[in-house]
Amino acid sequence: MTEIPMPDDGYPAPERQYQPPPSKGCCTRICECWLYLLCGGILLLVVLMILFGFFPLLWLFG
């Protein structure tokens, strides 16, 4: 049984260990906004598909 290092054990947390500086790569605010917009769009599509699946009359009157 291997021991999983916890952040309080003296080991750096994996999120903090590999986090690049905010000015490089896709860690800027713009990329985070695009990520949230993409996830929001997918969630909206899923909700709409569920609604139109449960209520087919919305296709006719909507």
Overview of the molecule:
By secondary structure, the protein is an all-alpha fold. It has a domain of 38 residues. Helix content is 56%, strand content 0%. It contains 3 helices and no strands.
Question: H/E series, N to C?
Answer: HHH
Mean of the pLDDT scores?
A: 68
Q: Give the low-pLDDT segments.
A: none
> What proportion strand?
under 5%
Question: Largest sheet, if any?
Answer: none
Short description:
The chain has 62 residues and is an all-alpha fold.
Helix-strand layout with pairing:
Elements: H1 14-17, H2 29-54, H3 57-61
List the keywords.
mainly alpha; single chain; 62 residues
